[in-house]
Amino acid sequence: MENNRHTSREYERELQEIRDGLLYLGVLTERALERGAQALLERNSILAEEIIREDEQIDSLDVDLEEKCIRLLALRQPAARDLRFITTAIKITGHLERIGDMAANIAEKVIILNDLKQIKPYVDLPRMVEISRGMIRKSLDAMVREDSELAKMVREEDAVVDQLNDQVFRELLTFMLEDPTKIQVCLYIMQISKSLERIADHAEGIADMVIYMITGKSVRHKPTSVEQG
Amino acid sequence: MKFRLFHKFIATFFAIGIAAVAVAGLLIERELKMDLMTRIAEEMAAGARIIALMPTEEIARRAAELAERTRARLTLIDAAGRVTADSELGDGETDGHINRSEIQEARLRGVGKAVRYSHTLQKEMLYVAIPLQKESRTTGYIRLSRPLAEITLTINGMGKTIFDILLWTVIASLLIALLFSLKMLSPIGRLAAFTGKVRMGDVFGTLWIKPRDELGQLSENINEIVRTLQEKIQTASEEKRKLELLFSGMSEGVMVLDVENRIESVNRGMEELTGRLRGEVIGKTLLEAFRNIELHDALERFREKNVTVCEEIGLGDERSVIMDVTISAFADEAGGERNTMLVFHDVTRLKKLERTRTDFVANVTHEIRTPLTAIIGFAETLEQGAVDNRAKALQFLRTIRENAERLNRLVEDLLTLSGLELGEAKLHLEGVRIEEALDQVLAVVAARAEGKGLTIRKGMAGELPLIRADRDRLAQILINIIDNAIKFTPVGGTVAITTSPGEEGFLTIRISDTGVGIPKGEIPRLGERFYRADKTRSREQGGTGLGLSIVKHLMMAHGGRVMIDSALGHGTTVSLYFPVSRESE
Asked: Smaller CB count within 10 Å for chain B: N or C?
C-alpha cells in the first residue's frame, strides 16, 4: 500500500515534470520571438545572434522532454487521460521546437536586414509576433487550466496572422514593383513574415493538441468558425 | 452507546441469574436427596433395631403388622440368606439374599444400606438391613425397604419450592440490577456524549455529573482536561492569528511550496507584487503560475544545492518588477514533509536608484571631461608655440576661458541641484509681480533672441495676482526656460510667453516656441539630470544638461510644478504653475 502510494506519487511527479517542461519550452520560444521582434525593430544584430545560440537550448530541451515522454510510456504504461497527455505532449514539444527553429530563422534574416537600408518602419511584423506569442502562451494556459474554450479561441487567432501575412505580401509587392533596388530587402522581410505565419500555424497545432488532451476529441484539419464565417 | 452497554449489563445479569438458579437448584436437590435418604435410612435402621428386640418368630409372625407400623416392607432373612418372612410376599420365596450389598454391609458394619431396583416389586427401592444377633452370633437379618419414589416425590416437592424461591430472588435481583445499571449508565452515556462532542472539536462546554464517586471524579477530570484544552486552543489560535496578520501584513511577498513543489500559500504582499490572486496560483507549480523560467531555475538550483538561494529575478508579465528572491526550506516539527519558502522583496526602485547613481557619476565625469580636454588641448597648443601667434593665441585663450566658464557653470549647477535635493536651499518667499520678473528676464535674453532673429511675444491676461516666489530663483527659472526656447528655435521662429490665472490658487506661465520639439517618449525623462533630448545640439549650445532638472526642483521648492508638452517639429510648450501669494487676495 505504502509502496503503491509511493509509486503513484513518483508517477505524478514525472507527469508534472513533463507539464513543466512544456511550459519551460513555451517560455523559451516566446522569449525567442519577443527578442526577435526587438532585434528587428532595434536593428540589434548582437541580440539576433543570441537568439540563434539559444535555439540550441530549445533543441536539447525538446530532445530531453521527448525522451522523458517515451520512457514514461514504456515504463508506466499509462492509460486514458495520461496516455493522451503524454502522446500530445510529444507533439506539442515538436511544435515548440519548430517555433524555436523559425525564431532562429527570423534572427538570421534580421542580421542580414540590419546590414541593408530599412525601407519603412515595421508595423505588421511586430503585430504578428505579438499575436503568435499570445497564441503560444494562451494555448499552454489552456493546458494548465484545462480550458478547451480558451484553446478554441487560440485556433481562431491564426486567421488574423494569415491575413497580416497576406497584407505584408501585397504591400511588399508594390514596393518591389516601384523600385527594383528594394527587392532584396523585401524578400527577406517576406521570409520573416512567412516564418511568423508558420509559427502561428504551429501555435494553432499546439491549441489543437491541447483540445484533444482535454476533451479527447480531435479538431485537427477542421476549419475554425472564423474560416467558416 | 448507552443502550449497548445497558443490554450487555442486563444480559450478563440474566445469564448469571439463570446459571446460579440452575447450579444452586441442582446442588440443593442433590444435597437434600442425600440428606433425606440418610435420615430415612437412619430412621429405618432405628425401626429395624427396635424390631430386632422382638423374638425372631414373633417378627416373622407379625411381619405385616410391623411393616404397617414402620411404613416399610419388612423382610426377615436368616443367616444363610434365605428369606424367612416378608411383609409383602409369602415366605420362603427368594434366597441368595446373603450376597445383596445391604446384607453384606450389615454383616460387616452392623447396618447396611442400598438403593436398588427390586425385581420382586419392580420398583426403585431403598434397603436398610441390620443383623439379628444372639450371643454375638448373627442369626439373621432384618431388612426394611421403602420405595424410592416416595422419597423422590418429597424431594421434588421441596425442589419446586426451592426453585420458586430462587426464581423470585433472581427476578428481584435483576430488577435491582436494572435500576442500578440505569442509574450508573446514564452518567456514562452523558460522559460518552460529552467526550464525543469534544472529539468533534466542540470544547466549549462543561460536564455536570453529581455523584461524589469514581464517576464524579472522572467527570471532574474530564472537565479539567477540556478546560486546559480550551486554553491551549485559544493560545494556539491567537498565535496563528498573529502569524497570519504578520504574514499578510508584510510588504514582502511570501510563498510556500509543498513537497511536490506546488504553491501551498501566498500572502497578500505576494498577490500585490505579482498581480496574481491567491486562487489563480494555489496548487500550481511555479512555471504554471508565473511562467517564469528564471524563478524555476532558481528553485532547481536550490533543490540541487540545498542551501538558501538568493537571486534577483524579473517578475510580472513584462518582467519589469525586479525581485530579490530568497529561497529556503523548512521541515515540520516531525522532520517529515519538507516545504520550501520563497520570500520576494521588490527591489525595482532600488535598482533604478542604483542605475541613476551610476549614470550620474558617468554623466558628471563625461561633462567635466569635455571642457577639460579642450582646456588641456588648447593650453598644450599654446605651449608648443601658438602663443607667439597673437591672433591664434587670443582665440585659443578665449576657448579656454569659455570652457573654464562652462566647467564653472557645471559646478555651480551641481551645487544648486544638490542643495535643492538636500533641501538646504533657502527660498526668500515674497509676493512677486510676475510682469516685473518677466520684464527683467526678457531684458537679459532680448539681445540673444534678436541675434537669432526670433520674435518674442508677451501676452498678459489683465490684472494678475501676485505669486509667492523667491525673486532670484524665479529669474533663474524663467531664464532657464526662455533660454532653452531660444536655443532650440530655429532662426525666424517665435517664442510666446503668456500668463493666466490657472487652477485654484495657481498662476500659469506658458512659454511656447516654434522649435524642434521633443519626442513624446522623452518628455518624462527631461527632468533627469544630464538627460538631453538632442544630445549633440544641446552640448553645442553650451548647456550643462542640468537646467531643467534645476527648474523642476526649484518649482517643487516653490510648491508649484512644471508641465512640458511637445510635438516633434512643431515646438514645445512649457507651463509653469506658481502658487498665488496670499498678499494679493
From this structure: C
Q: End-to-end distance of chain B based on CA atoms, in angstroms?
A: 90
What is the three-class DSSP state of B408? helix
List, in order, residues 6 or more apart from B271 with CB less than 8 Å away: B253, B277, B278
DSSP B106-171: HHHHS-EEEEEEETTTTEEEEEEEEEEEETTEEEEEEEEEEEHHHHHHHHHHHHHHHHHHHHHHHH
Q: Lowest mean pLDDT: which of A145-159, B161-175, B196-210?
A: B196-210
Please answer yes or no on whether A26 and B260 come within 8 Å at the CB atom.
no
**Minimal Cβ distance to A27: which of B260, B285, B291:** B291
For the domain covering B2-155, report its CATH number: 3.30.450.20
> What is the predicted pLDDT for the residue at B226?
85
Band the pLDDT of B1: cuts 50, 70, 90.
Answer: very low
Top mean pLDDT of A166-170, B257-261, B434-438 is at: A166-170
Q: Which of residues 327-386 of B touch A (CB under 8 A)?
A: none
The CATH class that applies to domain B250-346 reads alpha beta
Mutation site, B260, B277, B280, B288, interface A, largest A CB count within 10 A? B288
Q: Which residue, chain included where needed, has cell 467526550?
A: B195
CB-based contact (8 Å) between B290 and chain A? no
Please indicate whether the domains covering B2-155 and B352-420 agree at the CATH topology level: no
Inter-chain CB pairs, A–B, below 8 Å: 28
Inter-chain residue contact A12 with B260, CB threshold 8 Å: yes
Query: In Å, how far is B237's CA from the nearest CA of chain A?
Result: 33
Rounded Cα distance, B234 and B240, in Å: 10
The domain locations on chain B are 2-155, 203-246, 250-346, 352-420, 426-584
Range of the domain at A39: 2-224
What confidence score (pLDDT) does residue A196 get?
Answer: 92
Q: How far apart are CA A108 and CA A102, in angstroms?
A: 10
Question: Contacts of residue B293 in chain A, CB cutoff 8 Å?
Answer: 24, 27-28
| Strand B494-501, strand B455-460: pairing | parallel
pLDDT digits over B108-154, tens only? 888 888 888 877 777 788 888 888 887 777 788 888 888 888 777 87
What is d(CA A160, CA A166) in angstroms, rounded to the nearest whole number?
10
Chain B stretch 253-282, residues whose beta carbon is closer than 8 A to a beta carbon of chain A: 260-261
What is the percentage of chain B residues whose pLDDT exceeds 70? 92
Distance CA B208, CA B154 (A): 58
Question: Which chain B residues have a beta carbon less than 8 Å from that of A61?
Answer: none
DSSP character at residue B13: H
How confident is the model at residue A1, as a pLDDT? Answer: 44
Alpha helices, DSSP H, located in B384-433: 390-422
Distant-in-sequence, close-in-space partners of B262: CB < 8 Å, separation ≥ 6: B283, B284, B285
Percent of chain B beyond pLDDT 90?
1
Convert the pLDDT of each residue in A106-122 to its tens digit.
Answer: 999 999 988 888 777 78
The average pLDDT across B452-476 equals 82
- Write down the ipTM of this complex: 0.81
Classified by CATH at the fold level, domain B426-584 comes out as: Heat Shock Protein 90 (3.30.565)
Cβ contact A20–B287 (<8 Å): yes
**Best residue in A6, A27, A139 to probe B by mutation, most B CBs within 10 Å?**
A27
The grid cell for B163 is 426453585
pLDDT for A228? 44
Is B86 in a helix, a strand, or coil? Answer: strand
B284 in reach of chain A (CB within 8 A): yes
